[in-house]
Sequence to fold (303 residues):
Amino acid sequence: MAAYFSIFLVLVTLVTGIIWALDAWLLAPKRRARLALAEGQGDLTEPAKAQMLQEPAFVETAKSIFPVIAFVMILRSFLYEPFQIPSGSMMPTLLVGDFILVEKFAYGLKDPVFRSKMISTGEPKRGDIIVFKYPKDEAVDYIKRVVGLPGDRIIYRNKQLYIQEACRGQSPCPEPRLVDRAEVNRGEFSLDGVPQIRYRELLGNVTHDILIDPARGEPTAFYFRQDDLPAGEFVVPQGEYFAMGDNRDNSTDSRFWGFVPEKNLVGRAVCIWISFEFDRKPDDFLPSWIPTGVRFNRVGGLH
Fold:
């Protein structure tokens, strides 16, 4: 849907802009010429002059729409775009009902239709929260956290994360390193009545929280397999990234479907601009899509 809306914005901007330009360069001069000819043939009343100079309805509509649509297209395509969090895969960092702003220019300026990069402005860093086109269905937007950079070896075993950074001219090459984490609490979040363990993890230069489900085993049989590597080990190809959800046992991420190509990147999540609560009481008969409140304490947050 987001891709179709981008195309719609571009088409409307293009059509209204062409109409405005044609009127300015072709139709308006003709109207003024007709007025000058009519004035040379006799006196005209002011209403008659105004009528001869009046723009056609479609031109007036295009001129009123074009600036607004062009501004929205530029803002949404190149600067910032709002996204809604539809699932709990990024808990506790992002909750269902959070609306986030995504910085579109963080990893390059791309054209809004074909998504080809026009200008390079940066690359994802370890720990960034990214929005990207799901590699298995690019009509769907996903949001996860960057764990592995090109050339890294990622090991996820016994719910522990190890990273062997790519050997970028270092000697000797880095060894696999257990990512530091410390328990914060238990039971703040629960799934089907099972208290989740909340850890604080240091990923690159980013400190953030994750959730681990102690009752759920590792579904290694469903992990993405790469060459002859054992289940749970991945080497990130050049030009691609390894992304995981903060809700580690409730996230369909790179462990299951592979890597995020650079061309699929949409942008970097920078803040929560509004957050709605959707929890229902047993006697609440409101439709599920109507929020029950606003979580003002979450506005502006993101790690």
Q: What stands out?
A: The chain has a mean pLDDT of 89. The helical segments are 2-41, 46-53, 57-79, 254-257. The chain is about 25% helix and 30% strand.
